[in-house]
Amino acid sequence: MSRGPSSSSSVLVNGQLTGDYPPAPVLWITATIDTFCLLGCSDWREFLQIPQTSVWYAKVPPLLEHLPPMMTFNEYLEQQSLSPTTYAEWVTSIYQFAVKTPSTSLGNLATPSAWVVLIALVLLLRRVKRTLLPFFSSIGRSAARRTHGLEWEAKNEERIAKFGEYVFRLIYHSFISIYGIYYFWDKEWWATNGTLSLFQGFPNHQVEPGMSWYYLLQAAYNLDAMVSLMELSFVLDTSRIRAGRWPWRWSPTVRGDFQEMMIHHVVTNLLVIGSSVCRLTRIGSMVFLVHDVSDVPVDMSKLANFLKWKYTTLFCFFTMMFVWLATRLYTLPVTIYGAILTQSQYVVEDGLPVLLYVHYRYIFYGLVGLLILLHVAWFGMFLQMLATFVQRNECHDLSEHKTGEKQGPGSPASSAISDESKKIR
To answer: Which of 33, 208, 254, 329 lies 20 to 30 Å from 230 when distance is taken between CA atoms?
Structure first.
C-alpha cells in the first residue's frame, strides 16, 4: 500500500487501526509547511520532486472540511424564516439561538460569535471580581483580626489579599462542579463502560446548548485565571525601566508554584480551545469536571490555611488528598486518559480521514499527559506538606511558599497556630 495520499484508506479491524500511513512527526512537518505556504509555495512537493509514494508527499486534510458545519445566527434566522425588527424580537431570536438550538457556532471557540461571547464573559468575570474580591478580603481581614489580632493582620496583607481570590475560586468551582454533575449525570459517556461513546459516531456528535455554554464559561474562567496569575505574580517597577532593566519584578503575592500553575493554565487553555475546535467536547467536559470537583477542597484548605485555622486546614487537607486521588490520579489517568489511548481510534469509524487522526492524536496525548504529570508533582507537594506537619506540627502551604512559611517562635503565624490549637477550631 502506498504511504502517500492512499494512507487515508486505513481501516479499523477488531478495534485496531490498520494500514500504512506516515508517522505523526512527518505529518506535523508537512502540515506546517502547507500552512505557511498558502501564499505561493503550495506546490512545494512537485518543486522538490517528491515521489507520490513517499511519506513526505502526504497532505493532512483540512479539519473543518470534515466536521459538520455549526449553524451561525444568520443561518438560524434564515432556517426559521425570521426577520426580527423590534428589540424584543431580536432578544427572543438570540435567546432561542443561544440557549435552545444545538450545534450552533457558539459550540466552536474558533468562530467569531463564540469569541464575542467569550470576550464579553471574560470582561464580565473581571468586573465581578473587581467588585467581590475586596468584599471577600474584608471578610478575611475581619476573621483574622478576631482570631489572631491586629499584629497578625498587619503582617499578613498579602495573605488577606489572596484570601479574597480563593473565596471567589471556591464559589466558582463549587458552582461549575454542581452544574457539571447535574448536566452530565445521565450522559452516556459517564456510564459504566461508556467511554466508547466518546468516540463512536464522531464527528457527528451533537453539541447541545448546555455543552456550548459549559465550554464558554470554562474558557472565560481559564483565560481570566491565567491573567490573574500574572497580576498576582508581577509588579511594574518604573525604577527598573530607568535602570535599563526588565520593568517587571516578582510580587509579594507570587505563588510558590508559579511555574507549574502557568504551565497548567497554558495547557488547559490549549485543551479547551483545541477540543472545542476539533469537536471533542465530550472528552473535554470529562477533563474539566474532574478538575473542578477536586479544586473545591483545594480552595477550602487554602482559605483555612491563610487564616491559620489549623484543624480546619487539616480536615480540608485530607479531604483534598482523597478527592485528588479519586479524580486527578485515578479517574483522569485511568478512565479518561486510558480511553483516549485505547479507544480514540474509533473516531475514524464513520469516515474521518485517518491522516487527521494520526496528525492530532499525539498532540492531545501529550497535553493531557502533561496535565497528569503536573497532578503527580502537586500530589508530591501535598505529601511534603503532610511530612512537615508530622515532623514539626506546622501547616505549610508549599504551593504558596516554595520553601515553607515563616513559623518560628514568636512569629505571627506561630502565634496563630497556638491560638488555633487552643480554640480547637
So the answer is: 329
